[in-house]
Amino acid sequence: MVQSLLISVAGFAAGLLMAGGTWLLAPPVDDRTAHAVARTDAAPAFARSARLPAPVPPTPRVAAPAPEPAERAAPTLPPAAPTVAAVETPPEPPAVAAPAPAATQPPPTAQPTTAPPTTTPLTTTPTTTQPPATLPAWKRFAAVTPDIGDRPVIAIVLDDVGLNPARARRSIALPGPITIALLPYGRGLPALAAEARQSGHELLVHMPMEPLGADKDPGPNALLVDLPAGERARRLDWNLSRFSGYVGINNHMGSRFTASSDHMRPVMRELKSRGLLFLDSITSVGSVAGRVASESGVPTATRDIFLDHHLSMPQIRRQLRAVERMAQRQGHAVAIGHPHAETLQALEAWLPTLRDRGFVLVPVSAIVSRRMTG
Predict the structure, then answer these.
(1) For position 230, which CATH number holds?
(2) Which helix (H) or strand (E) is 364 found in, with range?
(3) Number of domains forming the structure of the chain
(4) Which of 11-20, 71-80, 183-192 has the highest mean pLDDT?
(5) Where a domain ends, among 63, 84, 103?
(6) For residues 149 and 94, which has the higher predicted lDDT (pLDDT)?
(7) What is the pLDDT of residue 34?
(8) Is the pLDDT confidence value at 80 over 70?
């Protein structure tokens, strides 16, 4: 009974607390109120007709939500390391972002100003130093001839070069162009030949031929009258193979061999086939070599004066004066000497004076050309 009375009072109180559906007093918040609300189905009818809203879930006083943990000093976590941004590795630049790879980057424009100038004109070999191979050897390997004009010309030929290396080099050191006749059985001939040509001189093969008189020895592989024709041809070929760059041959000794037309004709045929010239040293008044050369179509010249038949400085100087007179008289002169100390000394003094006295020093091929053109 008491219980029912209490419920009625509670319902009445609840009605007083509502005015037009509005709470006038805060609802009780203890456990008993919660229990009473849960039992509203047992309340009197007037209390049910009030259509109380569903009770608010009990909100204990402590339920006023305590400050969020975030409001608290951040749970005492260890002090944050310097801002993550300060610690984290700065973003790497794009792997190959900075300049584009060379492969994809167009090659730098070639700058004509930095490119070396075209070198073609510098590397082209002048035709004067390497004439066409179609020219005959006597023209292809001829030494350069100075400007002649209308002056008389002189060719100096030094025979028997190659047996004495020191005198050979002294001969090569003479002012040129002179003509150097190398003995085919000399020593170091390829090197001497190259050195002579580089110095502006011209070369002959000083071909050993049989002399008159058994007491004279022309040297190994000489052309002898009594040899079989095949052996003479073999010796001729061997002598012509000892070095290169020569314009022709002249005879070493040969007073007997050059007197025979029958023996000279095969020699001239070989010279013509090789495009070589022939200089007749005229070691004998009976030589027919020059005539046979002309008949065979071989370019030729003949010796005018021997310089050192007598080895004395006064005699050699007299012969040099004779060379000058010969050149003035016929327009050219060919003089032959040897690499004797006296001859070399006389030439060293005389050659530098030629131009001032109106002469031009030329290789023997220049006189051959003059004879051919008349």
Answers:
(1) 3.20.20.370
(2) helix 364-373
(3) 2
(4) 183-192
(5) 63
(6) 149
(7) 39
(8) no
User: For position 214, what pLDDT does the model report?
Assistant: 84
Q: What is the DSSP letter of 333?
A: E
> Would you state the structure tokens that stand for residue 331, as one six-digit string?
């327009």
Convert the pLDDT of each residue in 213-222 to its tens digit: 988 999 999 9
Nearest of 370, 303, 364 to residue 179 by alpha carbon: 364
Contact yes or no for 201/180 (Cβ under 8 A): yes
* Residue range(s) defining the domain that contains residue 36: 2-63
Asked if 31 and 39 touch (Cβ cutoff 8 Å), the reply is: no
Residues 358 and 226 both lie in one domain: yes
Rounded CA-CA distance 302/280 in Å is 5
In angstroms, rounded to a whole number, what is the distance separating the alpha carbons of residues 239 and 237? 5
**Cβ–Cβ < 8 Å for 334, 368:** no
Contact between 180 and 216 (Cβ < 8 Å)? no
pLDDT value at 165 more than 80: yes
Q: Tell me how far apart the alpha carbons of residues 38 and 41 are, in angstroms, rounded to a whole number.
A: 8
Whole-number Å distance between alpha carbons of 293 and 251? 13
Residues 223 and 313 in one domain: yes
Judgement on whether residues 197 and 325 belong to the same structural domain of the protein: yes
- The radius of gyration of the chain's CA atoms, rounded to the nearest angstrom, is 62
- Contact, 219 vs 210, CB < 8 A? no
Two tokens at 67?
A: 């400050």
Per-residue pLDDT of 340-362, as tens digits, reads 999 999 999 999 999 999 999 99
For the chain, how far is it from start to end, CA to CA, in angstroms?
174
**Residue 7 near residue 35 (C-beta atoms within 8 A):** no
Residue 123 pLDDT greater than 70, yes or no: no
